Each structure stands twice: as C-alpha cells, then as structure tokens.
Amino acid sequence: MKRKHNFKELQIWQKGRALVKDIYQLTSKFPKSELYGLVSQMRRASISIPSNIAEGSGRKTSKEFSRFLEIAYSSALELETQLYLSFDLTFISESTLDEYLNKIDEVQKMISSFDSKILADNI
Fold first, then answer.
1. Single pTM value for the model
2. Of 52, 55, 45, 69, which is closest to residue 117 (Cα–Cα)?
3. Which ranges in the chain belong to alpha helices (H)?
C-alpha cells in the first residue's frame, strides 16, 4: 500500500523521536519510586507523539491523518503537564523545566502547522 507521507521523512516525526530520547534520559534520573508512576506516564506520553504521527501517515485521507496529529498534539500537552508536576515535586529544576517546555512547544507548533497544511492542501 502506497502512503501519501513517509513518516520517517517528516520533521515532526524526527523531532518527536528526539523528544522521546530526551525524556528517557531525563526520567532516568528520577527517584526509583516513580518508575511505575510519573516516569512511566511521561515515557508513554512522549512515545505517543511520534507513534501517532507514524500511524496517521498510513491513513488514506488527510482528515484521518489529522485525527492522529490531534492525538499526538494532545500527548504533547499531557507531557507538558507531567513536566510541571515533575518540577512541583522537585524532580527537575526550573531551568530544566523551561528547556523541556521549549522542546515540547516546538513540537506542538510543528504538529499544528503540519495539520493545517495537510487539511488545506488535502494531501
């Protein structure tokens, strides 16, 4: 089956993939007691971003792809909340929080922009 988009060539997928690596490295420093709590949640939310972009790229219509982009965007919002909680619980510093919020913001903007483009172009 031929896809309209090769997800591996999409910058939003590449940025999402890099974010997963960053989140894994960050959460590896969290308390062991959080392994099945916040660490697991953050890792799953980050993985959901590039995974949904990849899955959506295989859909037949732009509208279907857009739905998966919405899910990826929502996962980024979830991850953003979890970073704030990590800061509140003093697992990360304010500078680390800001650094990761900027990374997530960049991914969110890219997803939103790409979603608008595929719907406008109907590609």
1. 0.92
2. 69
3. 11-27, 38-57, 62-88, 94-121
Domain ranges of the chain: 7-121
Look at the domain 7-121 and name its fold: de novo design (two linked rop proteins) (1.20.1440)
The vertex-19 CA angle with 36 and 77, nearest 5°, equals: 70
- Give dist(CA 49, CA 71) in Å, integer: 8
Question: Which residue in the block uniquely carries the two structure tokens 């857009």?
Answer: 66
Q: What's the pLDDT tens digit per position in 66-102?
A: 999 999 999 999 999 999 999 999 999 999 999 999 9
Question: What are 97's two structure tokens?
Answer: 């929080």
Q: What is the pLDDT of residue 1?
A: 47
